[in-house]
Design brief:
The protein has 350 residues and is an all-alpha fold. 80% of the residues lie in helices and 3% in strands. It contains eleven helices and three strands, in the order H-E-H-H-E-H-H-H-E-H-H-H-H-H. The chain has a three-stranded mixed beta sheet. Helix 2 (50-77) packs antiparallel against helix 3. It is globular. The N and C termini lie far apart (124 Å).
Amino acid sequence: MKTLKFYLVFFFSFQFIGNTQCVTIEESQRINFSHNEFIFVGFPEIYEYRRVLFLPFFMTYILVLAGNSLLIYVIRIMESLHSPMYILICGLAAVDIMVATVIIPNMLLSFLFDWNDISLAGCLTQMFFTHFLSSVESTILLAMALDRYVAICFPLHYTLILNSAMFVRLSLFTVIRSGSVMFVLVALAGSLSFCGSNVINHCYCDHMALVSLACGNTDKNTAMGLAVIVCFVGIDICVIIFSYMKILNVVLRAAAGEDRWKAFHTCGTHLIVIMCFYLIGTVTFLSRNLNIQIPTDINTFLGVMYIVLPASVNPIIYGVRTKEIRNRILQMFNTRVNKVLTVQVATVEM
């Protein structure tokens, strides 16, 4: 009887150990497995109407390309606009075109043809350029605010401070700061394993949208995301607001009547656009970092607007509303209209 009990205990122990080993092997395989392909589902609640979304985003993309390209062209052909401020506006327009091109064409193909998949390498590449270009835009906005601050508060020293050497240093600072920070951000994301879902709840490869799919520890990624907010939003926006406050203080003391209101309106408009850029970007970054519950469709919309809105309105705010650029654009169109009318009149006379 004792022998029988011994064999039964031995048998069940062996079965338990065997099952435990099988479970351990399965868990190990699951942890070691990592997706290399991902699927974008940006607007799940209105997914069946995704083809309707094609037209507004397509028209917005055309507006971004046309407005910013016209701005670059006008600044390039007018020698009187080859000053630091307008060169910065030209750089801002170029960045707006590039960052919109990184995400919108893929979105349009997704809406129209259901091309929603992307490789991990492609996702990380898109992530790097999206966040890199956005951080470059932040640095350009910072430089534009400082340019106006020096021009208005220290006009006699403007040419000494903002010269070609300063532009070279600014360019190096922009590339090094944005490139190094975003490289670390993307490298940390690329080191993760994605053994669960491969569905990205976004229209492009946003950092935390991808990191949220990881099955390992993501504390470093969360900390890096917060560091990006501090580095670009926390520092840049404080310097920008300080610069505009100083500008307003000087202008309001010197100007009177209509000129004072015009200065206040111009600075206020610039600050509103800048604040929208930083506010929307901060919300999209922090909503996932701090587990703020925002509906997927709204979060996706904010993430897209963070890219599209500044690229759409910057040509108007910094271009059309600038007197020199506006006059040049009107002159170009008037010349074109006069040529067309001249040709039509000549044809009728013949």
